[in-house]
Amino acid sequence: MKNTHLLLLFFTLMLGNLHCLAQSENVLWYNRPAEYFEEAFLLGNGKTGATVFGGIQSDRIFLNDVTLWSGGPVDPEANPDISYLIPQVREALAREDYRTAEQINRKIQGKFSESYSPLGTLYIEHNQQGTATGYYRELDIGKSLATVRYDSDGVTYTREYFVSHPDRILIIRLSASKQEALNFTVKFRSLLRYTTSSEDKMLHAQGYSPYYAYPSYMGKVPDPIRFDELKGTRFSADIQVKNKGGQVTLSDSTITVSDANEVVLYLSVATSFNGFDKDPVRDGLESRALAAYQLKRAYNQDYCTLKERHQKDYQGFFDRVKMELNGSTAPDLPTDERLKRYAQGSIDNSLEVLYFQYGRYLLISSSRTEGVPANLQGIWNPYIRPPWSCNYTMNINAEENYWLAECANLSEMHQPFLTFIKNLAVTGKHTAKAYYGVDKGWAAGHNSDIWAMSNPAGDHGKIAPRSCSWNMGGTWAVTHLWEHYLFTGDETFLKEEAYSLMKGAAEFCLAWLVMDKQGYLITSPSTSPEAQYITPDGFIGATLYGGTSDLAMIRECFEQTMKASRVLEVDAGFRDSLKTALNRLHPYQIGKKGQLQEWYYDWEDEEPQHRHQSHLFGLYPGHQISTEKTPELADAARKTLEIRGDQTTGWSKGWRINLWARLKDGNQTYKMFRELLSYVEPDGAKRFAYNGGGGTYPNLLDAHPPFQIDGNFGGAAGVVEMLLQSGDEGIYLLPAIPDAWSSGSVSGICARGGFDISMNWKDGKLTRVDVLSKTGKDCCIHYVGQTATFKTIQGKIYSFDAGLAER
Ligand code: FUC
Questions:
Q1: pLDDT in tens, 153-203
Q2: Residue 667 within a domain
Q3: CB–CB of 169/294 below 8 Å?
Q4: Residues 61 and 124 reside in one and the same domain
Q5: In a domain, 8, yes or no
Q6: pLDDT tens-digit series, residues 707-762
Q7: Which numbered atom of ligand 1 lies nearest the CA of 376?
Q8: Which residue lies with its CA nearest to atom 8 of ligand 1?
Q9: CA 653 to ligand 1 centroid distance, Å
Q10: Predicted TM-score of the model (pTM)
């Protein structure tokens, strides 16, 4: 062996060892390749998604593009006007005839949402002899970089993977400690319709998504996936090789590299999606030209330049927040081992920080495309009939995905959802009229998709009202617009983007409300997402009037719209009508068990431990119920949570963590957080559980089960909620700090009003807080009964000690 080779081998081995010894706090690592999706690494630039398995002989990378869905723009004509059924349901409800009301309500449905399509899989088949040893696989979420390394036959093989946002490219670099050791074949496969061709060290794949994909939860049906050459979003994937040494040979569907020293694979993906209201064929983007353009631009750059640019861009977001708990460092164990130990009761504060930062990593990696939010699986899905169509489930999941965005200093990542609401309002105008007979404002149902579908789903009566007969999707969604304004103070956004959407949602609700027998305003028909009641005569159903969660969402929407109109000094008359309606809404009721009533009457629940708890919306994410402002309602909410219990699905645990935090019960919040990190066996989405079973897979993805990303985001948001809460009354420091987090520090988390907060605490007590004013608004901070109120100057930092005296 030449001297230079020996030196290279020495440094590579050294580096490998260093990695294992000095585990960065931001690293997930394993000592074997992933077998299941739930063990693989997720990489993304907010548009292109890559799921990396890191196999030795055969490596697989699932590819996704956030804009590749089945179907096409919503056709308003496809929905006949069935709003004449509304008076019939109302009449049945007024007669307290719940059976009839339920039957008619079921007819008020349109089509199912479309489905997120898997783009394809890249295979890298290695022609290596010998058994691999020393296998090491890591995802560094501080750098958004995956690495695989192993030794075989005296050669150390290393692969690095990242997806760059600035250069719109997936990069895989393969290297070896010995010259001419790289021998592999690259191929592309897809479950969609596609063809491949090759030229000039490049493999080109193009195809299209189905025009129709029936949801997997409807089970086996004939022809669930339908393709038509003339329909469906087009996609292109171009893969080009840059090799040092060796030869490259091509076939129509493969690239083979022989005897190379180092190879960089450039992979560029594009689709024809051109907006929610544009036909992806007739008015689509030129996906082929776009993919080729991106590839050419990136191919002119060398690996190091691309990597540097990627990391600079990524770290611009990721590095904004730092956290440390009890001075703990990561134990030198693979992440799945740590998770297993943790689930058995071990203390691993650094794993808790990793889980929080991983939530931030996933949001940066999945949410950077205007009008296209992260879906149920973020952007990572290999299935042609994914769980729940991988859609936007508007009765919790789509919103939960974004609870983290503002408070964890990732406001830019909120934009895909905020801009999506604009699209939803367009189709939602038709939905309001055709399904609910309301010709003011807009409404959306419980399922949506990239085409901003807003009609109540259910395929014209195939699904019971418990999930499909719900029209508060818009009402809930617009609260995100106001939250964005509160955190950023961006009045231009409020004026030009948010207000008209908020007003439209409020207008719908104002027209939708009816008077009950006591003279209160209520919704009718109403449901409480996915839960069912039992009436005193034993009827189990979902359709009722005056459901608490509808009214909670309407309350929040009205209050926020009024505040926005005041800030913008517009619509004084409309504001008055909202105020009048607000005062007449049926108030919260406390039931005989001391619980916050879910139903208009104090009926029994069909499933008292149900995963949804939408009637607690006013506690979290809303701001109507708090231990200070409404102690009785807060107690009732606590009772409800106690009855619901702690065993639930992943996203539901994520929600309950935030609810318990708002009740300022740090230890109970922490208990739930620990349970969210229960180890769940990877299984390729085989196990579905609706009651209990929530937890975390080896790759730290949330298990509903199956994988659903909302639990990651909800859980990470809950970490902030334990450390910081903010609202009209100001900022609460360490409001729900658990005993287990007795000391620590955090920097860069955000509060409403436009403040970045950094804190240190020791023995459970705050020692220092720094408040950076981003907008120059007045500030008020609270800590254990003490309050400091002060004026601020934009850009200035204000420091306080434990007694809230300025330092
Ligand atoms: C609702 C939830 C399920 C699941 C699905 C995507 O139906 O009740 O638990 O999260 O959405």
A1: 999 999 999 999 999 999 999 999 999 999 999 999 999 999 999 999 999
A2: yes
A3: yes
A4: yes
A5: no
A6: 999 999 999 999 999 999 999 999 999 999 999 999 999 999 999 999 999 999 99
A7: 6
A8: 530
A9: 13
A10: 0.97
